Request: fold
Amino acid sequence: ESYVAGEDVEGYSPTKMRLPFGVKSLRPMDIPSEDRNRTSPLPYGGNRFEFRAAGSSQNVSMINTVLNTITAEGMKVIADRVEAGEDLKAVTQDLLKTHMKCVFNG
Reply:
């Protein structure tokens, strides 16, 4: 909402967290600081999107094709507007404002 309103927003910089086990034979483990958002069918997990709607025995090749096509089409909309001379920030703010009802935040 701050970004759509044109306010300055800070960049994303996750904090590093370590999980100590309290046992000398086990080294502390680095754990992700972001919420994995287990309620979303397509959550962002730090450096990747995860698709969780398919069962373990299902082939996801068609699902991936459809999702990649949707993503490519969305990027084309942005690229066309930027190449036509619009400012990238203004384009992304407009798209978020227009489609915010579709954004799933858990």
